[in-house]
Write a structure and sequence with these properties.
The complex is a heterodimer of chains A (444) and B (341). Chain A is mainly alpha-helical. Chain A contains 15 helices and eight strands. Chain B is 74% helix and 1% strand. Chain B has a two-stranded antiparallel sheet with strand order 1-2. The chains are: A mainly alpha (444), B mainly alpha (341). At the A-B interface, helix 3, helix 4 and helix 15 of A face helix 3, helix 4, helix 5 and helix 12 of B.
Chain lengths: 444, 341
């Protein structure tokens, strides 16, 4: 296999695995703020128990997020030296800012959140939880700003020619608030909040079905259902806005999202389908004519540029993008429906009795994780063949001095250790959930 | 120099500051990890972990931030060093992950074999992480083979040269001493007595390695030999560092625990500072006759350097204040009633 492909596989693997954890910790952090805030207001020990239980799961999730995140921070240099040289002037400062404004905040105050219960007062403790939540959200802000710049670069100019060409910053704020940033950070944060909320819902539903820790589970479920509902609704808004931005700035990507081949025609919105790259058509598909144009331009007749309007060498791999995009949409819609249903049952006073609904909730924690993963696959594979959209091809970004064999070695190492992490994390999680909140101490 | 140092110099200072912060802070928890091996009793081992539990995650953020700052300010160095030292860095990241797993999972289940495995993993990964840091800096001090395009032209095995390996050992001796002094500060009873002994032994090794490495560097690394001939005042640095260690050891004997820890930190700070100043304006020296990467030819635009400095000067004071606050909250001896690890 060639070095570029291996480097891409390694990046995809390490980032996908990493991204199982940060959304969960961002979402749980928000829930912790709500729970501990309720405790501070009501002084009801139930809320304290909740905060401590979820904080412990948060702590482990966070630690694994950090351990796998350090790999990401350095992988730009180890595997993508060409990219690093090209974009360092622009891309580096949000990474530095992420460390200074976000990571320090969350990791410092995390010490108080996890270990400081007897060392600071309840107000200071709540403040620490708040800072952890703020830090975790800010880390998403900076990294999504940097990633959005790779999608819709702005606030820079190109200096030098050929192999020496590189992007230099001209306007920091324009770079940061590049065209896709606000929609995408909104989308990412809503996704993260849902990840935390549905996770809590799943665990609470499990307790209710098993008739264990019922007071605890009911209180958790109410808080999480509100968060899930609010963020699912927010996701509807941010998803739509993101689509319009993609249509405007990355038309090839949108065409791949929806399998829109015609050079210039009103766009169909597909529920599902399979893209035939050779025949340039969607097969086995079910689509609504004009719906895509309606969503993008509020006019079903508006023509949209399709894949054929662009040279084939600028197309992303079509089916990966199309399928993962559609999985994301389907799962996202399902979660919206489920959250509305939950709120309805709550309003009718049936939430905790409807066993069928609680059974639906148990696997629901997978929903946001699947949507996060497929959403990012659609976004990042959809950016191909560019590493910086329209500026630098992915093949030009790779480290020239690193051989395919070296990457193979590191790929095997990462796969092995990440497999181990996953097993360990899951076994801890199942045990922690099985033991439940009654006993704060795990062992010793 | 006239008046204010330029943006490049200030950016260099910022990166060095972050790296030094990382080495001193994660350094003491590497040391605790190494000593974990020598603390045979389960109760002692648990207290060792308890002593670093609130801090180790935050300490690693210094590495992440230093990496970000290096990427932003000197992208060519970031690209050349990390891709050039590919397998060494992958190994380092691997070791850091294993270390995090050991800390997090050791106490989660109580089976004996489970404990034993993670105890070993914690000590080995801490030692290896320290060793690799020393090795990387050993190579950077000697200079690495660079092509005219600023790309690394050496090999992975070439990184394992005698000087670099010895630098690795030297780093391990420092981290052990630093970690032991941290434990003296944070433990009580017989564990504190043990830590004092560990500190003494590690300091002995450190002094021995330091003297040997100083001589090797002064006479065996050509650009340093040249430099000390030009400025013989550099001969004053090793004695000054030995003085700091002497004060540190006096601190142990007289129960000035904090002074002892502080002066061990000063000694490493002096070593890092001296090398940073000696290297300046070079960042990476070429051992193969190619051009060195300097703060002037490997840097980002003045605009970006200005942005980084603004971010650092707004952000770092706040970071120092609340990091200091967290260390203050967890001051004193670690209680043995800890529940988490």
């Amino acid at each position: 296999m060639d070095a570029v492909l291996l480097a891409r596989i390694q990046f995809a693997l390490t980032i996908s695995f990493h991204y199982l954890y940060p959304p969960l910790s961002i979402g749980l952090a928000l829930a912790l703020v709500v729970m501990e805030g309720m405790y501070l207001r009501t002084r009801n020990p139930l809320f304290l128990k909740m905060t401590k239980f979820w904080a412990e799961i948060f702590g482990l999730t966070f630690a694994i997020g950090v351990a796998t995140g350090i790999v990401m921070e350095f992988q730009f240099g180890t595997n993508w030296a060409g990219y690093s040289r090209y974009v360092g002037d622009v891309f580096g400062s949000p990474l530095a800012a992420e460390g200074i404004f976000a990571f320090f905040l969350e990791s410092s105050f995390l010490a108080i959140l996890l270990f400081g219960w007897n060392r600071v007062g309840p107000r200071m403790h709540f403040f620490s939880t708040l800072m952890v939540a703020l830090g975790s959200a800010l880390s998403a802000v900076w990294i999504v700003a940097a990633n959005s710049w790779m999608q819709t670069p702005a606030g820079f100019h190109i200096v030098g020619e050929g192999a020496n060409a590189r992007a230099e910053i001209t306007d920091f704020w324009q770079m940061l608030f590049n065209p896709s940033f606000l929609d995408r950070i909104h989308h990412v944060l809503m996704g993260a909040w849902q990840t935390g909320a549905w996770f809590i819902l799943s665990v609470s539903a499990y307790y209710l079905l098993r008739r264990k820790f019922e007071d605890f589970a009911k209180a958790c479920m109410k808080i999480a259902l509100v968060l899930a509902f609010v963020s699912a609704m927010g996701q509807l808004v941010s998803g739509h806005a993101s689509g319009i931005t993609v249509a405007k700035y990355q038309p090839v990507k949108l065409a791949a999202f929806e399998g829109h081949f015609e050079e210039s025609a009103p766009g169909k919105l597909y529920l599902f389908g399979w893209l035939d790259e050779k025949g340039e058509e969607v097969r086995f598909g079910l689509g609504f004519p004009g719906m895509l144009s309606l969503l993008v331009h509020f006019n079903p007749q508006a023509p949209l540029p399709g894949l054929n309007a662009f040279p084939k060498r600028d197309w992303p791999p079509l089916n990966i993008v199309f399928q993962s995009y559609h999985v994301m949409i389907a799962v996202g819609m399902g979660l919206i429906g489920l959250s509305v249903l939950g709120i309805f049952l709550w309003w009718r006073g049936l939430l905790f009795q409807s066993r069928w609904f609680l059974m639906l909730l148990i696997p629901a924690f997978l929903g946001p994780q699947i949507a996060n993963q497929t959403g990012w696959i659609a976004a990042e594979v959809g950016r191909q063949p560019w590493i910086v959209y329209g500026l630098l091809r992915t093949s030009a970004g790779v480290s020239r001095v690193v051989s395919a064999n070296e990457i193979l070695i590191s790929l095997v190492m990462f796969t092995t250790v990440y497999g181990l992490i996953f097993l360990l994390f899951m076994s801890f999680l199942f045990r922690k959930i099985y033991l439940g909140p009654s006993d704060g101490k795990v062992s010793e | 120099m006239n008046g204010m140092p330029d943006l490049n110099t200030l950016s260099f200072v910022t990166v060095v500051f972050l790296l030094a912060g990382y080495i001193l802070l994660d350094g003491f928890d590497f040391g605790v990890g190494i000593l974990h091996f020598f603390a045979k009793r389960g109760e002692d081992r648990r207290r060792l972990l308890g002593a670093i539990a609130p801090f180790w995650d935050g300490n690693e953020v210094w590495l992440v931030t230093a990496g970000g700052a290096l990427f932003a300010a000197f992208p060519k160095v970031y690209a050349a060093v990390f891709s050039g030292f590919y397998l060494a860095f992958v190994l380092f990241l691997f070791v850091l992950i294993f270390r995090a797993l050991a800390i997090e999972f050791r106490g989660k289940f109580s089976a004996l074999a489970w404990r034993g495995f993670w105890d070993a993993a914690f000590s080995v990964s801490s030692g290896l992480a320290g060793f690799l840091i020393g090795m990387v800096f050993g190579n950077l001090i000697q200079g690495i083979p660079l092509g005219t395009d600023g790309e690394f032209t050496g090999t992975f095995l070439g990184l394992f040269n005698p000087y670099a390996l010895f630098s690795g050992l030297f780093a391990v001796s420092f981290f052990s001493m630093h970690g032991a002094l941290y434990l003296v500060l944070r433990t009580d009873g017989d564990l504190r007595e043990k830590s004092r002994r560990w500190a003494g032994n590690a300091a002995l090794l450190f002094v021995l390695f330091f003297i040997l490495l100083s001589a090797w560097t002064a006479f065996g690394v050509p650009w340093v030999t040249l430099l000390v001939k030009q400025s013989p005042v550099l001969f004053m640095v090793p004695p000054a560092i030995l003085c700091a260690i002497f004060i540190s050891m006096q601190g142990i004997r007289r129960h000035w625990d904090f002074t002892a820890f502080l002066f061990s930190g000063f000694s490493m700070l002096a070593i890092i500072g001296t090398f940073a100043a000696a290297l300046f304006p070079n960042l990476v020296i070429s051992s193969s006759g190619g051009y060195p990467l300097t703060v002037y030819n490997a840097c980002s635009s003045p605009k970006t350097l200005g942005i980084i400095l603004r971010i650092a000067s707004v952000g770092m004071p706040a970071v120092l204040i609340y990091t200091g606050y967290v260390y203050w909250v967890f001051r004193g001896k670690t209680a043995s009633d800890r529940a988490y690890y």
